[in-house]
Write a structure and sequence with these properties.
Radius of gyration: 35 Å
Structural class: alpha+beta
Distance between the termini: 100 Å
Largest sheet: 3 strands, antiparallel
Oligomer: single chain
Strand content: 35-45%
Order of helices and strands: HHEEEEEE
Shape: elongated
């Protein structure tokens, strides 16, 4: 006679997995979820405040107004600089030829004692700079402006 095969004893899957990997983690309580959300909100608001104010405080900008070539050895560049009154500023002015090669370069100091009776309280300063050139130029622009004390 053949004997019937007896199935091997089985262990419930839940208990064997919990023995191997540990028990399931408890979900966060409502209080911890609210604290995490509040912290994330505070960090987000702080970051937005920093981004919005960091670009506007102490910023220096320039705008090209005009350009004229007097002869093959010099050119005049007109531009305006917007900065906080009393902030020292240096600007690099470049002059280009017809192939966009730099034929003249000058770093200019913008004076501190600009007029404060202007409509914007002395924030905008207009400058005319004469730049010596190597050859005939066709364009003059402000390359960059910065605070030398920063």
């Amino acid at each position: 006679m053949t004997s019937q095969e007896q199935p091997a004893p089985t262990v419930p899957a839940d208990s064997s997995l919990s023995n191997r990997y540990g028990t399931a983690k408890q979900p966060l309580s409502r209080r911890k979820k609210l604290a995490a959300a509040g912290l994330a909100l505070a960090v987000g608001v702080g970051f937005l405040a920093w981004v919005s104010t960091s670009n506007s405080i102490g910023s220096i900008s320039s705008k090209d107004i005009g350009y004229s070539t007097t002869d093959a050895t010099s050119a005049d560049v007109d531009f305006e600089v917007v900065r906080d009154p009393g902030t020292p500023v240096k600007c690099a002015v470049k002059v280009l030829d017809s192939k966009y090669a730099v034929v003249g370069w000058k770093v200019v100091d913008i004076p501190l004692g600009a007029a404060t009776d202007t409509a914007d309280g002395g924030r905008t300063v207009t400058q005319r700079v004469t730049v010596r050139t190597e050859s005939l130029s066709v364009s003059g622009v402000v390359d960059s402006c910065w605070n030398p004390e920063a």
